[in-house]
Design a protein that fits this description.
This protein is of the alpha+beta class. It is 45% helix and 18% strand. The strands form two sheets. It has a four-stranded antiparallel β-sheet with strand order 1-2-3-4. The chain has a three-stranded antiparallel β-sheet with strand order 5-6-7. The longest helix has 32 residues.
Length: 181
């Protein structure tokens, strides 16, 4: 089974990332202008406008390129089969067997929830223990731009894993990862 990105979700991601980074650039420049005034340096905000416009244009071009790569031919996909799953984009490819995964849960920010996964203890030992990087102690996350909702996708992934491995007990604390975020 192959799951492709949703146009709506990629556009939602594009708008979110573009707005947040552009506002960050303009906010940082405003902070520099205010700091310069505090240091009694004559640096009017207007002299920083063109660098901000150029930086904003670069951000729009970069995020548009990534969004196009996700949606284009040979773009992102999530492939599920009896052995495991493969997440791939033009830039990288990750694959895991179902036995590598303890469970899938929904987590992330309230604005862009996503599916997070936790490695099985055996897999964690095999690859060498590395710190858990994501919210609620999960090891990896899948991007939020696939067509099913995060809840539906997590359920689908857990169903595939359960059919392959048999159900694994998930601690009650991990079932609702989004509540801890």
């Amino acid at each position: 089974m192959t799951i492709a990105p949703s146009l709506f979700k990629v556009l939602q991601w594009w708008i979110f990332v573009t707005v947040v980074t552009t506002v960050g650039v303009w906010g940082a420049v405003g902070g520099v202008a205010v700091a310069a005034q505090g240091l009694h340096v004559d640096l009017p905000f207007e002299s920083l406008t063109w660098p901000c416009v150029i930086a904003s244009a670069v951000i729009v071009v970069m995020t548009t390129t990534v969004a196009g790569a996700l949606l284009g031919r040979n773009g992102a996909s999530l492939i599920l089969d009896e052995q495991g799953f493969v997440f791939q984009t033009r830039f990288r490819k990750r694959s895991h067997g179902w036995s590598d995964i303890r469970h899938f849960v929904v987590g992330g920010s309230p604005f862009m929830p996503c599916v997070m996964l936790t490695y099985a203890a055996e897999y964690r030992a095999k690859i060498g223990a590395r710190p858990r990087r994501h919210a609620a102690g999960n090891d990896e996350m899948l991007p939020p731009y696939f067509a099913p909702t995060p809840d539906e996708l997590a359920q689908l992934l857990n169903d595939f894993r359960d059919r392959s491995q048999g159900p694994k007990e998930v601690p009650a604390a991990d079932v609702k990862a989004e509540e801890t975020v």
